[in-house]
């Protein structure tokens, strides 16, 4: 008589469920004359990604948590497909580039409002890429940390789904920290600009200005004299930054003949907010990216708080609520925070 067949539980050890997390900071772009070429990582706002190993390949967005400063942003505003979500796309690209035989589930803690002008999609891409790199290290897939070049390629490709192209002016400072100069034609060519860091005041009017719409407002050609003017003031800004000459930095920030003149009308109260900053002694004030964020260079942290208060009052007078406060330069960029193992 044939013995009955009995199915035994699989005695092989199952992989532990490992979770890592990483942060991508907010960033300012352009800073006046540096259209598509200059960006600065800042403190105060960030996106965080939690990535948990799973056996199935690919990256699945499991949940999105919305921070208190994100205003009317809701989770439904964010795509969950790993082809359209910048955090998931960046994480998937890093895992695939290193031939990982596993995937991950993702939780996004969104601390940067969409359409705010401080690089929300870029911060998510950076957090996703850095978290994936940390997961590869924790799982022993790579013997050395994932290279900067690999992370740069992943975040540029991921950010392109939000910005419509490989633009590095937000995503590279968010990844690398500090002030970064980017070749807009080939954003894998960049330089991190050394030097001291200024005190800054930031105002975020609660209106949404989407990057794609702001790009459509730009002219397709500009007069030669305007292009030359912007180039000269960008050069002054960079040299003054390295020297810590914040008065000259502020002056250079105020001179943009390419983007800010056509984007300013998209921001209600733009002139009033700028004037409020300057009337309170700010050394310069301009849009960040396509807005509505506006940043001012100040003498010190106490002065930045005073300027931010004046900018906030001007926003309210224009009929819009706003977040405003003193911020610093984030010199660290994207960074892994912690990891834990379960199972």
Question: What labels describe this entry?
Answer:
single chain, 343 residues, seven-stranded mixed sheet, four-stranded antiparallel sheet, 10 helices, disordered N terminus
Could you characterize what this model shows?
By secondary structure, the protein is α+β, with helices and mostly antiparallel strands. Helices cover 34% and strands 26% of the residues. It is built from ten helices and eleven strands. Strands 1, 2, 3, 4, 5, 6 and 11 form a seven-stranded mixed sheet that branches. Strands 8-9-7-10 form a four-stranded antiparallel sheet, sandwiched between helices. Helix 6 runs antiparallel to helix 7. The two termini are 41 Å apart. The N terminus is likely disordered.
Mean of all residue-level pLDDT scores = 89
In terms of quaternary structure, the protein is single chain
Rg: 22 Å
- Share of β-strand residues: 25-35%
- Tally the helices: 10
Shape: globular
The end-to-end distance, rounded to whole angstroms, is 41 Å
Provide a concise account of the structure shown.
This protein is an alpha+beta fold. It has helices at 86-97, 120-138, 148-163, 171-176, 211-216, 224-243, 246-253, 260-263, 270-279, 301-317; strands at residues 17-30, 34-54, 59-66, 103-110, 179-182, 190-193, 199-205, 284-287, 294-298, 322-327, 335-342.
């Amino acid at each position: 008589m044939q013995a009955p067949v009995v199915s035994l539980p699989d005695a092989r050890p199952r992989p532990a469920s490992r979770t890592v997390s990483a942060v991508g900071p907010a960033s300012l772009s352009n800073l006046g004359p540096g259209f598509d070429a200059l960006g600065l990582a800042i403190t105060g706002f960030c996106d965080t990604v939690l990535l948990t190993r799973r056996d199935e390949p690919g990256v699945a967005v499991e949940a999105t948590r919305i921070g208190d400063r994100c205003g009317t942003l809701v989770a439904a505003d964010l795509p969950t497909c790993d082809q359209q979500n910048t955090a998931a796309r960046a994480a998937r690209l890093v895992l695939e580039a290193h031939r990982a035989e596993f995937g991950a589930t993702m939780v996004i803690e969104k601390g940067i409002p969409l359409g705010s002008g401080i690089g929300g999609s870029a911060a998510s891409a950076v957090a996703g890429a850095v978290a994936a790199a940390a997961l590869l290290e924790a799982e022993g897939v790579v013997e050395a940390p994932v290279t900067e070049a690999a992370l740069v390629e992943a975040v540029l490709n991921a950010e392109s789904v939000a910005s419509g192209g490989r633009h590095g002016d937000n995503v590279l400072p968010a990844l690398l920290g500090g002030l970064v100069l980017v070749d807009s034609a080939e954003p894998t060519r960049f330089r991190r600009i050394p030097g001291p860091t200024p005190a800054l005041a930031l105002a975020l009017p609660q209106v949404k200005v989407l990057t794609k719409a702001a790009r459509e407002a730009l002219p397709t050609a500009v007069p030669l004299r305007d292009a030359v003017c912007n180039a000269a003031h960008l050069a002054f800004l960079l040299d003054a930054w390295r020297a810590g000459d914040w008065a000259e930095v502020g002056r250079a920030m105020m001179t943009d003949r390419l983007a800010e003149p056509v984007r300013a009308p998209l921001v209600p109260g733009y002139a009033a907010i700028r004037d409020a900053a300057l009337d309170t002694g700010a050394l310069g004030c301009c849009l960040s990216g396509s807005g509505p964020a506006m940043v001012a260079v100040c003498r010190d942290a106490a002065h930045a708080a005073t300027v931010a208060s004046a900018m906030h009052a001007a926003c309210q007078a224009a009929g819009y609520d706003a977040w405003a406060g003193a911020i610093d330069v984030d010199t660290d960029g994207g960074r892994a925070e912690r990891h834990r193992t379960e199972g």
